[in-house]
Amino acid sequence: MLTDGEVIQLVGANRRDEALAEILRAYRRKVFGLAYSFVRDREAAEDVAQEVFIKVWRALPAFDGRASLSTWIYTIARNTSLSALRDRRAKREDAAAPDPDLEVASESGAAELGAENASLLRLIERLPDKQRQVVLLFYLQEQSHEEVATMLAMPVGTVKTLLHRARSSLAAAAGLSPT
Known about the structure:
The chain is mainly α.
């Protein structure tokens, strides 16, 4: 993994492709996980992640190190994910039809987790957006509290609070006593 300074040096030496290759190696999984937490569909998340890395490649010459590389990449990923969500909503409103992608996301996610966890995934899908995002990033993408906070641009304490509320909601929905 390159340091932020090494990325700036590579870009300055006209070795942007090499810098991007290292960035891809280090951030591919995390960017996909962040995108998935927003769009909740594997194909859409892959498209968003691809768009994110195209934007990163194009913007690398402007990266000046004022923010850390990870914060800069997660900001691009978050904004690209939000744009994809807005585009999907606009298309859905234009078509005035239910979005089959939401059903497909639940079904494909359920298949990935196995049949025994399908009901859990359905419960997660019903959580408020922020709670769902932190649950998906923390538990399914196995990011730390700090990484989730950076990815979603929120304090670590907020991530912990959202996780606690999500666990309580999931336990209540499953008929369990919250811990």
